[in-house]
Amino acid sequence: MAEVVHMIDSEVFLAFSTYATFVILKMMLMSFMTSYFRLTRKVFANLEDTALVKSEEDKKKLVRIDPDVERVRRCHQNDLENVVPFVLIGLLYALTGPDLRTALLHFRVFVGARFFHTVAYLTPLPQPCRALAFLVGIITTISMAYRVLRTAFYL
Amino acid sequence: MAEVVHMIDSEVFLAFSTYATFVILKMMLMSFMTSYFRLTRKVFANLEDTALVKSEEDKKKLVRIDPDVERVRRCHQNDLENVVPFVLIGLLYALTGPDLRTALLHFRVFVGARFFHTVAYLTPLPQPCRALAFLVGIITTISMAYRVLRTAFYL
Amino acid sequence: MAEVVHMIDSEVFLAFSTYATFVILKMMLMSFMTSYFRLTRKVFANLEDTALVKSEEDKKKLVRIDPDVERVRRCHQNDLENVVPFVLIGLLYALTGPDLRTALLHFRVFVGARFFHTVAYLTPLPQPCRALAFLVGIITTISMAYRVLRTAFYL
């Protein structure tokens, strides 16, 4: 019993909470970047949104697709596909009571890889920068999933 | 120890569970709305799906893009990008043992803002209705993230 | 107090951790399938990604849309829209202390339905195979949400 409570109150759980919050906030930042690009470049997905900018142009022409907006959106989508699994598996991982140093290594590598992934996607840096950042993130999550399965396996 | 257990068993955690479940169910409802629009308007993303409606028309012509279906899908995507971070950060926030009234305020404002966001997106209401609903949701989540970081900060 | 701790340490929570991890890993597998299709069919979303394949063709022509890649991506998106709600609601559900057999039934049906959904989407199997797999998954999640609301209702 004390062991379980220790897990939630532990430094591992505090560290998980900190890194998870940072990487979720980073993911949410992509929404603002999309909005910023849409407003400054006048590229909208909905006709009613064109009212947000003063423009002499025909409103309907502002509802279009822009390569830079699509790039930010793909980056956001990639975050959804990778950060959410990290946080969900990381939560279960933190509850398995891993060694603090090992846990910190996982959290730091993942969060670092995802921040670099965003830079690599938006600059864009030449490949395989982004591909490697993506792979490092995935491998970290799989490594945590492996520990969860090894510890909690119950089918 | 008793403190941590109190957190999970607390009214804050019960309230979190209730509001999180409501807003996730609302998000899942968007899947049904997409299916409804696809079936009634005969607009499909996959050739095999055209078998779901009896139609005299050429099946291939039913695989196309429809502005109303895309609007529902963008609304669903916006939910994924905002509701999932709310639930993940809200879970960590509920474990930091916040004041019940403050916590309820956060949960109610977020859930209210997201329900209004959906109405504003699908009606559609004139801007900046939707933009404000989106912002209120984001700010609520950031406010909870701030408390998580202040309480659990461990890098 | 002992009751709450029992919930996290219980067989229900272990089972939840196992099934949730499996279905999240399955969802992450879709990223690799997308990459595999993009690399083998030389279909890219970003100009810089074309450097990942040796190709005589004009690089710009490789940035295009391919029906098979889009199919994998829709399948991945459907996973995001369904697996993430399952894991989030399932976590709260596991903390309500359900009967082990009932909980296992929910987890097994959901995970089975989603694996079948992926097979049905990518083969593709004739409808309504995929529609039924999707529905079974949604109903399982709603059934868990119902128990969470019945147990933890606090507005």
From TrEMBL, chains A, B, C:
Which keywords are on file for this protein? Acetylation, Endoplasmic reticulum, Membrane, Mitochondrion, Mitochondrion outer membrane, Transferase, Transmembrane, Transmembrane helix
Q: Superkingdom, according to UniProt?
A: Eukaryota
Q: Which residues cross the membrane?
A: 12-32, 80-96, 131-149
Q: Which catalysed reactions does the entry list for this protein? A: RX + glutathione = an S-substituted glutathione + a halide anion + H(+)
Enzyme type, top EC level: transferase
Signal peptide (UniProt feature, chain positions): none
Where is the protein situated, by its record's location annotation? Endoplasmic reticulum membrane; Mitochondrion outer membrane
This entry carries the following GO cellular component terms, namely: endoplasmic reticulum membrane; mitochondrial outer membrane
Q: Name one GO molecular function term.
A: glutathione transferase activity
* SUPFAM superfamilies (UniProt xref): MAPEG domain-like
EC number(s) reported in the record: 2.5.1.18
Q: State the similarity comment.
A: Belongs to the MAPEG family.
- Identify this protein by name: Microsomal glutathione S-transferase 1
Organism of origin is: Albula goreensis
